[in-house]
Amino acid sequence: MPGKLKAKIVAGRHLPVMDRASDLTDAFVEVKFGNTTFKTDVFPKSLNPQWNSEWFKFEVDDEDLQDEPLQITVLDHDTYSANDAIGKVYIDIDPLLSCEAATVISGWLPIYDTIHGIRGEINVLVKVDLFNDLNRFRQSSCGVKFFCTTSIPRCYRVALVHGFVEELVVNEDPEYQWIDRIRTPRASNEARQRLISLMSGELQRKIGLKVLEMGGNAVVGYLQCFDLEGESGLVVRAIGTACTLDKLSPGTAPNTTTHTNTHTLPNTAPTSNACNSPSKDSKESPLAHGCRSTHNSPVHSTCSSQRLSHSQNFSVSVPTLVFT
């Protein structure tokens, strides 16, 4: 297999009270990637459980690592009825797929429920082992960096600008399917939440493939837009500029000047002197900030529990980049 994903559930804290008789919770965790699911043991009578589970291992293709998020579901165990959902965490694996990136995602992540909002935190460890000699880079875009900022980080130099890239992905909106008439609001919200995450990953991978075909290794000015078109479905569009970036050695000043046209976006974030642009080789866990690093995704927005009308859309605006 091209890659092995490993996840470990360490602990939870500040979980909500699910058993009114004892004012405590019998919590356990389901870890899912693709069609494979693992479960931890139930930690009884505690709002701050300590699972310290074994490493759960998933053998997957590298393109699946780009498309699929790691799904962590926290539940309350019930003996005589269905288990109650506490909340979920979606972890983007992209930050671990670059050879220059960190090798592990770890820390406390918020547990989010589409009805009740934040419901505690969970401590996880996530690792990826890639078999580079077997990676099919023409079917995935592992190693392509994505920058949504208005300029290149100072630890990189623009070697070549290849040109404009764009892509579009369309799918049915789960909230307009027939099954939405009989499932719970939480299930409907989670179905849309998961679909948006999958479409975002697929779109980014396809953009990365186009960049590789053009001979580049990065996308600058990455812009991703979601259109909620009611019964017509969900449409995700992305644009960017394909570039070849060279990483500078420490202490070397870049010889490329980047000019930005900021009239399209008044509130432009300042560029830091450090290499801290939200790219796949530097971004932290996506759930620590509530979204993918390359766009303001609605996947983890607090408004995801509300039904959005077909006329609503959301996007992230990025100013035009001109290199001289």
From TrEMBL:
User: Which UniProt key words apply to this protein?
Assistant: Calcium, Cell membrane, Cell projection, Cytoplasm, Cytoplasmic vesicle, Lipid-binding, Membrane, Metal-binding, Protein transport, Repeat, Transport
Comp. bias (Low complexity): 252-271
Sequence ranges of Polar residues compositional bias: 293-305
Report domain C2 positions.
1-109
**Is Transferase one of the keywords UniProt gives this record?**
no
InterPro entries attached to this UniProt entry: C2_C2CD5 (IPR037785), C2_dom (IPR000008), C2_domain_sf (IPR035892), C2CD5 (IPR038983), C2CD5_YbjQ-rel_dom (IPR056431), Synaptotagmin (IPR001565)
Return the protein name: C2 domain-containing protein 5
Organism per entry: Oncorhynchus mykiss (Rainbow trout)
Question: Species lineage, top-down?
Answer: Eukaryota, Metazoa, Chordata, Craniata, Vertebrata
